Amino acid sequence: MTIKRLFDIPHYALETYPKTDMFVTKYQGEWKKTSTQEFINEANKISRGLLKLGIKPGDKIALITTNSRTEWAIMDLGLSQIGVVSVPVYPSISPEDYEFIFTNAEIKYCFLSDKDLLNKVTKVKHNIPSLQGIFTFDNVSGAANWKEVLDLGEDDSTQIEVEDLSNTINSEDLATIIYTSGTTGRPKGVMLTHHNIVSNVLGSIPRIPKKKGLDYKDTRVLSFLPICHIFERMLFYLFQYNGFSIYFAESIEKMGENVKEVKPHYMSVVPRLVEKVYDKIYATGSSAGGLKQKIFFWALNLISKKKTVSKPSGLQEIIADKLVFKKWREGLGGEIITLVSGSAALSTRLNLMFQNAGIPILEGYGLTETSPVISVNAFGKMKIGTVGLPLDNVQVKIQEDGEITVKGPSIFKGYFKNDEMTKEVFTEDGYFKTGDIGHIDSDGFLQITDRKKEMFKTSGGKYIAPQTIENLAKASKFIEQIMVVGDGEKMPTALIQPDFEFAKSWAMRNNLSIGSTPQEIAKSKELKERIEKEIDNTNEHLGNWEKIKKIELTPEIWSIETGLLTPTLKLKRKAIKEKFIDLYNKMYEHHE
C-alpha cells in the first residue's frame, strides 16, 4: 500500500502491525490501551458525527490538550480522513492568542481536554464569530462532551460517505495549520499538506534505529512533548508507521514515574529536558556521601575526558559503567534505544556524556515550516556537535551570508492568509530561508552556528552569536537561564536567572544566608560573585570581543506563564529585555 495522505498511515499499520496497544493513556491512575482496530473505528465515528454536524472538507477544527492523550489521536484521524483541516494549539498560550488564532483560522469547532482550557477559550468565545461549539475530553459539568460527537456517528450506515470523501483527498491538500509561537509578534499559520508531512515521515524512517530481535509488538514509545508541536507530531506518525506502541506521559512532572512504568525504547526530548535529567543525576550522585559519592565523581571524571563516543573499554570504564552508568540507564527505564533531540541546540558536552553513558541521543534540526526535519544524526552516521546529514529528500544550500536554505517535498505551502510574508521567506530560486546560520562540513554534516535574527553587532562592529555563548554558560549548575545582550553596546553582558534551588543548597553547604525567595536570592552578593566565576570559565572558550563583561541576576523565574519563554522553551528576547530593562541599564550605565 502506498502512503500518500496522513490517514493512510493507520490503515497501513492495521494491515501490517495490528496491535492491542497502539495508543496507551493513563486515566485515574490506570493505563488504558486502544488497539489499532479500535483507533480506526473511533475515528470513523468522529468523521460520521462531524458530517452530521454539517462539517465539510476544508473546514477548520481546533485541537487543544494539556497533555497528549489518545483522544487527540482519534480526533486527528477523524478530521484528516474527511478533509477537515486540523489546527492544533498550544495549551499554554494566552487567551488573546487563542482569540487571534481562532479568528484568523475561522475555527468552526474546538475540542479540548479539560476544564482549565475550557475556561480560557470561553473567555474569548464571544469574540469569535465562526466558533459554533466547544467539546471537552474530560467530563466537565455543563460542557458538551466529545462523546456526543462519537454517539452521533455510532450508526455506520453513513460510512460510505466517509470513504467517498477520503477517496477525493489529494496528497497536495492542506492537512493542518500550525501557528508558530514566534519570539516576536503575532503567531503565523504554517500551512502543511499531507504530502509535506508524509514525505518527512518517510524521509526520516531510515534515521531511526531498530533493535535486532525486538519485535514491533513489544516496542514502546513514551511521548510527552506537546503533540501540537510538529516535531512530536511527525514522530507520532512515524512510530505508527513502524508499528510501535505510543504511551502518552501524564505530564513532565510525572515523567520519572512514567518512564519506570513504561520502560520505553524511544523518547523525543528537547535539550532543556536532557539538562534537567542530568541535573537530577548530578544532584543525587553528588549528595550520596561517602564511597558512593567518590565513585560517582570518579566515573564522571572518566567519562568527561572522552572526546569521542565508544563502548566501555578497559577495566576502569567497564567498572564505571556497571557501578554508575547502568543506574542512569535504569533511571530512564533501562530499555532506551535512543532519545531523539530537537527544537534547540543540545550542548556537545552533555550529548557526549549521555552517549558514553550508553544513552544514545540523535540530534536533529528543523522548523515547523519544514515539517520539521531537515537533518538528523543516525547510528553509524553521527557527528556530535552537528545536527546530522540532511535527509535524502531535502536539498540544503548555504547562502553567501551563511544562511541555511532548503528545498524539498516537506517544505510548507506558505503562511495562512499572508502571501506577503510567504514571499519574504523564499529565495528567487525557491529555497526556504530558515533564518539560521550554519555550514556543511567536509563529511556533509550540517552544523548550525546561530539564529540569523538573534545575532547582534557591538558598537565596535563585531558580530556576537548569543546562542553559542548561552549554551556554553548553561553547563553551569548555577545557571538555569541566560540571555547574552549588547546590541549596539560596547561589549556583551548577560542577564541570568540562577537555578534558585541549586543556589539554596549551595548556600546551605557553605553556611551562607542568601534568603529563600527568588527576589532575595538574586540580590545575594556571594551568589553573584560565585556565578561571575562560572562566567569566567565560559569566557575562556570565547574570543575577546565575545567575552561577557558583566552580569545581573534576575529576581524571578523565566517561564512560559510569565511570557518570557515560548511554548517550546526558547527565550523571548525582546520580552526578557523589556522586563529587566533596569538591570540592563545598570550594566551599561558606566559605559556612556
UniProtKB/TrEMBL annotation:
Alphabetized GO MF terms: ATP binding; long-chain fatty acid-CoA ligase activity
Gene3D superfamilies: N-terminal domain of ligase-like
Domain AMP-dependent synthetase/ligase: 16-416
InterPro entries, alphabetized: AMP-binding, AMP-binding_CS, AMP-dep_synth/lig_dom, ANL_N_sf
Statement: the UniProt record of this protein carries the keyword ATP-binding: yes
Alphabetized UniProt keyword annotations: ATP-binding, Coiled coil, Nucleotide-binding
Source taxon at top rank: Bacteria
Pfam families assigned: AMP-binding (PF00501), AMP-binding_C_3 (PF23562)
Coiled-coil regions listed in the entry: 521-548
GO cellular component, one term: membrane
Protein name: Long-chain acyl-CoA synthetase
